[in-house]
Design a protein that fits this description.
With about 270 residues, this protein is mostly helical. It has 12 helices and no strands.
């Protein structure tokens, strides 16, 4: 006999979903509030979306954050891939312990320490702070997360395919590019998206290493929120939620289509046998 959820389990599940998503729902609702006060409903109006699209400060900061996040995600994915590959495939080598510690240290190091350390480095190098310093600082901690994801995927790969390719005459570099990287593609895509999100969401580290004219979107939002939450910020949050939801739906449809194609190929192979 099939049993349903226990009332306590169901109540905890509903409480968890409410705790996670109720603030987002409230944010979306009050983004259409006609009044300026976010705690008092004054009527339905989409005017704050128009105000948001006419705000040059937010648009400039959003474009800056997208550029930094894209560059950071790309470089962090490449560097994290190389680091994870070296740790997993090269076995014991001199300095492995130090290399492992340096690669994974940003995972446990507070953002304040990372931001202060990179700031002192740029000051010592007399490097003018701006978009480049924010990008470098983001790459520093993002590649640690990439390395963890890619290393976990490498541990589950079947190395026989790589060995077969090299037995047939493929050089190690060609085997890596044509065999290993395609097998790592799902992990690399996930790592790129994670690095992109971490960079887009960062406030603490960017605040340390940013310079004049290099204000990111989280920094602008934080500065505006300190003076009081505006429906304009609610509108920005709603657009970000809708964009993330759209990306998730598209990814789910792609994975569903790929899974259906895979099942169809398996069925055709079984019929052929």
């Amino acid at each position: 006999m099939k049993k349903g959820l226990h009332p306590f389990t169901l109540s905890m599940l509903l409480f968890g979903f409410a705790f996670l998503y109720a603030p987002i729902v409230i944010l979306i609702i009050f983004s259409f509030n006609e009044g300026k006060l976010v705690s008092v409903w004054a009527g339905f109006s989409p005017k704050w979306y128009g105000e948001l699209l006419r705000d040059p400060q937010i648009l400039s900061a959003a474009w800056m954050s997208l550029k930094i996040a894209s560059v950071n995600a790309t470089f962090a994915t490449v560097l994290g891939l190389f680091g994870a590959y070296a740790l997993h495939r090269f076995g014991s080598f001199k300095g492995r312990t130090v290399f492992t510690g340096m690669l994974t240290a940003p995972l446990v190091m507070p953002d304040v320490i990372t931001g202060l350390a990179t700031l002192l480095l740029f000051v010592w190098l007399s490097w003018q702070r701006g978009m480049s310093t924010i990008t470098i600082a983001h790459i520093t901690f993002s590649m640690a997360f990439v390395a963890v994801l890619v290393r976990a995927r490498l541990a589950s790969l079947d190395q026989s395919l790589e060995e077969a390719a090299m037995d047939l005459g493929a050089r190690p570099a060609k085997t890596f590019l044509l065999i290993t990287v395609p097998m790592l593609a799902p992990a690399l895509v996930a790592a790129w998206l994670l690095a992109f999100t971490l960079s887009l969401d960062d406030l603490v580290i960017a605040s340390f290493v940013a310079g004049p004219g290099s204000t990111t979107l989280p920094m602008v939002v934080f500065s505006k929120v300190r003076l009081g939450v505006s429906p304009e910020i609610n509108a920005l949050g709603t657009l970000i939620v809708l964009l993330v939801t759209l990306c998730i739906v598209i990814a789910a449809l792609i994975f569903q289509r790929q899974e259906a194609q895979r099942m169809q190929d398996v069925q055709m192979a079984d019929r052929a046998d």
